[in-house]
Amino acid sequence: MIFGVDSLYIWVAVIIIGVAVEAFSLDLSAIWFAVGGVAALIAASIGLEVSAQLVIFVLFSAALLLLVRPFCRRFLKTKKEATNADRIIGQSAIVTEGIDNIRETGAVRISGNIWTARSADDSLVPQGAMVEILEIRGVKVIVKRLDKDSVE
Fold first, then answer.
1. CB 107 within 8 A of CB 117
2. Pairing relation of β-strands 113-119 and 140-145?
3. pLDDT tens for each residue of 61-101
4. Whole-angstrom Cα distance, residue 3 to residue 126?
5. Residue 101, C-beta contacts closer than 8 angstroms, at least 6 positions apart
6. Residue 24's pLDDT band (cuts 50, 70, 90)
7. 31-35, long-range: CB within 8 Å, 24+ apart, which pairs?
8. What are 138-148's pLDDT values in tens digits?
9. CA distance 152 to 150
10. Sign of the dihedral through C-alpha 66, 70, 76, 81
11. What is the pTM of this model?
């Protein structure tokens, strides 16, 4: 008994909580405590004392966390997929729809693709103007006007 509750129920709760936390975090950290809870539950079911159950829980959880987690993370490592979107920074583009930050309008053509555009200095940029791509914010490019003579 732990705090007046049968230790079997405590270990079942530890297992459920460990699995739930792991399901939300997907960090391979809480699952090892759930496995330690299984080992302690087995110890409780064969009648070992609560202190022995705690020692088994701590040893199993710590050993798995320190020894198995790095091995598993190596194989489950997600690879960051490059999009090559940053290659357009610094390139010139032509405005295909006038850029107005207040009205949230504007588009540019870069390498054959149309991107939603916003002006870096909040200025109006007319259709046909040449701009330079300064940065990417989400799905929008931030631009600055190159010259005022390129308007159609």
1. yes
2. parallel
3. 998 888 887 777 777 665 655 566 778 889 999 999 999 99
4. 73
5. 118, 119, 122
6. confident
7. 32/60, 32/61, 32/64, 32/65, 32/68, 32/69, 33/61, 33/65, 35/60, 35/61, 35/64
8. 889 999 998 76
9. 6
10. positive
11. 0.47
